[in-house]
Amino acid sequence: MSPTADEQFMAQAIALAGEAGASGEVPVGAIVVADGHVVGRGANAPVSTFDPTAHAEILALRDAGRALGRYRLADCTMYVTLEPCPMCAAAMVHARLRRVVFGAWDPRQGAVDSAFQLLHSPHLNHRVDAFGGVLGEQCGQLLKSFFRDRRD
């Protein structure tokens, strides 16, 4: 069985997450896709950049905005290895992102369905379609291994 387009793009986000983990950052990676092409990439970097906002999703949104020459990304889909936090989910709403596909669920800070339901809030002026669990086991394993290694 061949992988779906969502799985193929998630695999690219997983590769970025691996790079983040190898450099000592929490292993989260994200890509933004428009018309079947990757237009933005991000890997967690808050530690190395001394920037608490340098989450993979924020960096991928910034990269996509620069590549496309605009801040509205209504025709784009983001693939991210971990369910977005409230900060990243809010940025997706402000960017008018069409869709987010994520891998592992985040029961503590997830802002799609887990801890918060920000992307579906009736109080916001835009809704981002969301789909979770794509290559979720693989994404979750990256995080588990990273934190296990840090404890050891």
Q: How far is the first residue's CA from the last residue's CA?
A: 38 Å
**Run of helices and strands:** HEEHHEHEEH
Query: How many E-type strands?
Result: 5
Adjacency order of strands in the biggest sheet: 2-1-3-4-5
Helix tally equals: 5
Helix share of residues? 25-40%
Describe the largest sheet: 5 strands, mixed
**Low-pLDDT sequence parts:** none
Q: Give the mean pLDDT.
A: 96
Portion in strands: 15-25%
What does the overall shape look like?
globular
Which structural class do you get from the secondary structure elements? Answer: alpha/beta
Q: Would you kindly provide a brief summary of this structure?
A:
Helix content is 39%, strand content 20%. The chain is an alpha/beta fold. 44% of the residues are buried.
Indicate the topology:
Layout: H1 5-22, E1 29-34, E2 37-43, H2 46-49, H3 56-68, E3 76-82, H4 86-94, E4 99-104, E5 129-132, H5 136-151
Parallel strand pairs: 3-4, 4-5
Antiparallel strand pairs: 1-2, 1-3
Helix pairs in contact: 1-5
Structure description:
By secondary structure, the chain is α/β, with parallel strands linked by helices. 39% of the residues lie in helices and 20% in strands. The chain contains 5 helices and 5 strands, in the order αββααβαββα. Strands 2-1-3-4-5 form a 5-stranded mixed beta sheet. β1 (29-34) and β2 (37-43) form a beta hairpin. The longest helix has 18 residues, at 5-22.
